[in-house]
Specification:
The chain is α/β, with parallel strands linked by helices. It has helices at about 10-20, 50-60, 75-85, 95-105, 125-130, 140-145, 160-170, and strands spanning about 20-25, 35-40, 45, 65-70, 90, 115-120, 130-135, 150. Helix content is about 35%, strand content about 15%.
Length: about 180
């Protein structure tokens, strides 16, 4: 079974997405809905969308590296990254642009081969440096202006999956794997 999710994608977006070998995601507002929830004893709670998780796993399956870059530090995020097999987890990173550049260099990639997906001002420098910048639907207006493409779904509600599906489609991996049907 094969179908196109993005048949009318502009050529400039398609060209940028075809080059991506590393997709880097912000967390709060991108992989989550941006709400910061705390228990009475001060522990943080985060909610992640299952569709996003499968998308991230599929990227890795097809050879696109996945990184998570966030200014905050969260044990919950570390558990989620481990569950998904994501080894490029960078927490407590205020300088997301330099972090993205360091990851790219370690993987022998140019910044043109990197995507940065974000929602707010701390993501802007990394988005400007990346070859493919994506803003989630509920991103700050300045972030949307800096993006090459916008998701239709909000952060924490399937936006990351949209990015994953787009990257896989333009790179020729849009088929539905037979294993998922059984």
């Amino acid at each position: 079974m094969s179908y196109l999710l993005y048949p009318d994608l502009p050529d400039v977006v398609r060209d940028r997405a075809q080059r991506v070998r590393l997709a880097a995601f912000d967390v709060d507002g991108t992989l989550t809905d941006g709400h910061l929830l705390y228990t009475e004893d001060g522990h943080e709670i985060k909610a992640f969308h299952a569709h996003d998780g499968l998308g991230l796993k599929r990227l890795r399956h097809y050879g696109i590296e996945v990184a998570i870059i966030t200014a905050r530090v969260s044990h919950t995020l570390a558990l989620r990254a481990e569950e998904l097999g994501i080894t490029h987890l960078y927490q407590g990173r205020d300088e997301k642009r330099s972090c993205l550049a360091d990851i790219a260099a370690a993987l022998h990639l140019s910044l043109e081969e990197c995507a940065m997906i974000g929602d707010d001002l701390p993501d802007l420098a990394a988005m400007h440096a990346a070859g493919f910048a994506v803003a989630v639907a509920n991103a700050h207006p300045w972030v949307k202006t800096a993006a090459h493409w916008h998701t239709t779904r909000c952060g924490g509600n399937g936006a990351a999956r949209e990015v994953c599906d787009l990257l896989l489609e333009v790179q020729g991996f849009s088929k539905v794997e037979r294993d998922y049907w059984y």
